[in-house]
Structures are given as structure tokens and as C-alpha cells.
Fold this sequence. Notes:
single chain; alpha/beta; Quinone Oxidoreductase, Chain A, domain 1; Rossmann fold; 6-stranded parallel beta sheet; 27% strand; globular; binds NADPH dihydro-nicotinamide-adenine-dinucleotide phosphate
Amino acid sequence: MKTHAIRIHEFGSPEVLSWExxxxxxxxxxxxxxxxxxxxxxxxxxxxxxxLYPMDLPTGLGSEAAGVVEAVAADVTxxxxxxxxxxxxxxxxxxxxxxxxxxxxxxxxxxxxSDDVAxxxxxxxxxxxxxxxxxxRVADGDTILLYAAAGGVGSLASQWAQRLGATVIGVxxxxxxxxxxxxxxxDHIIMADDDVPARVxxxxxxxxxxxxxDSVGKDTFFASLDSLRPHGIMVTFxxxxxxxxxxxxxxxxxxxxxxxxxxxxxxxxxxxxxLLIACNELFEFIGSNGVSVHIGQTYALKxxxxxxxxxxxxxxxxxxxxxx
Length: 324
Ligand code: NDP
């Protein structure tokens, strides 16, 4: 069977993305074939494109999508033809009209949720879930610092953290993003070019925050450590400015016996049971009153290169979806 998909034959700038007709293999045991209806864009897709996170070439791209099941292998019992499903995972090939995928990693989309919303919140919302509920469990009354607060992960994490009783300090780069972040769960905003630790001290009566969720990486690492209270935890979970460089553990001692963790989503949803627990919490959160899912941009899937340019240039807000 033929389908269309984005392929890259070399790592590089967005121009390496090419929309091609490709062969779709017969289903292997345990697989389902999905016709995609909405594909989620993630900053990580740009790391795959540039080779920062290397993959074998040629390769597809894309780590999450929603769609409809068109066929299942004979041994698949949990998922049926016609189910609306969403998934995240490897191999990266979500930028496609159709693909085969491990049926045990597919999750049924709740009836009340559209495919667009499912693709907008799945990877990013599960990330918000593990950041706030597993990496460091936010407690009622905590103050936390969250970078890229108007972005995909950020606008979900800020709303979720506020519902858990946290005071959320968001960091953003523009006045428009500040407005958006304030309307989506941030109690206070710090502009990215401010002296972040100094502003955090002002906002916390000199104490510092319980946890920093830092997706910017290299450029903000020490400012984030300087923003923590004693015994606080630095959750460094992204590389928007480049990977964090090696540092001496003594840096943690001299700032008050701090903790650092460098988590990735897939370590928190290893088994199907873990995945479904996470999804139940995510769907309950998204379905609850007042939660806003901001899909800031929509592109045709074959124009994914433009979406890559825009997310890398910090032009996007909230989630971005690509439509096959
Ligand atoms: P976003 O929608 O948040 O877009 C990235 C944002 O990062 C930008 O809008 C920008 O916000 C901010 N940013 C700061 N510095 C830079 C820079 N130098 N270049 C580009 N952007 C910058 O993306 P996602 O929601 O897809 O992902 C958010 C982060 O979470 C990413 O770093 C991603 O890698 C990470 N992530 C990690 C996961 C994990 O398990 N470890 C899983 C999923 C995502 P502003 O202009 O306001 O600063």
C-alpha cells in the first residue's frame, strides 16, 4: 500500500523535510494501521531533524498523532477498526498520512475530545503530568518556576500546577506571551531577559522556589539553580537553547543542597498500565472545568518545514498541529 509521509535523508535545516510517496508495510503481529487526522508538533521534532538526537537515516519525523484505526493484526484484541486513537512514541513517523504502530501503545480518545485536541495535548500533556506528578510532585502551597510558560508544554503545565495548589511563576520572552501565560495559570511572569533569580527572590520574599521546570537548558541552567530554595529541585527537561554542559556537583552544595533531575517522558509510561494511569489523569484534567487548550497554530502536514521554522524562532504559542 502507498501513502505519503515526510522523510529526511540528511540532518539539517527545515529544507531537509521532503513530502514523499512511501510504501506502507503489511501489518506485523501486535500492530494497527492508523489513518492520521491530526499530528502534534513538538520542539523535539527539530532535535530529530538537526541530528541533536541522532536517528538512522533516512527517517520519518514526528512523535505523536491522533487518527482512526483502519486495520489491526490478527492478534490485536484491545483496539478495533474504527477506534479513534492517539499515541506518542518511536519510531518517529507521525508526519505521515498513514502508518503502522504498536497497538499496545494506542489510547482511545475520549468521546468528548476532538482529534485536534488529542493531538495537541497528548505528548505535551503527558509531559506536564510526569513533571508535576512524578519528577517532582508539586504540593499545595509550593511556588514553582516554569520556563516557556506560553508554549505547548508550558501552557498545560501552568494550568495543571495551579490546580494542584501551586503558585506558578512563568518565564516568557514577549509581552503577548506574558498575557497568554497569565490567562493560563501563571500567577506571576518574569521576562526571559530579566535577572530571573533576582525577580524570583523578590516574588518569594527572598526564599526561592521549591522546583524549577527548565526546558531552555544551556542558557538558563545556573540561573535556575540560583532561583531555588535550599533542598529545592531542578527539573531540567529540554534543550531549547542547547544541551546543559557538564557541571561540578559542588555547585549544588553551595546553593543549599539542591537536587537535579534530567527526566524523559518515556521512562514514566513504560508499561501499558503506567500509560493508561497517566492518560486517565491527563484526560480528567483536560476535561475539567476551565482548562483551556490553546492551539495557537495549524499547518498542512506537508508544510511541516514552516512549522519547524516558526517553533525554532519562538514564534509559536500553545500547541501546534499539522493536518494531513
Ligand atoms: P514550546 O511550544 O514550549 O516551544 C519552545 C519554547 O521554548 C519557545 O516558544 C520559547 O518560549 C522557549 N525558548 C527559550 N529559549 C529558546 C531558544 N533558544 N530557542 C527556541 N525556543 C526557546 O515547545 P514544546 O512544548 O514542544 O516543548 C517545550 C520543551 O519541553 C522543549 O524544550 C522540549 O524539548 C521539552 N520536552 C521535553 C520532554 C521530556 O520528556 N524531557 C518531553 C516534551 C517536551 P519563550 O519565547 O517564551 O522563551
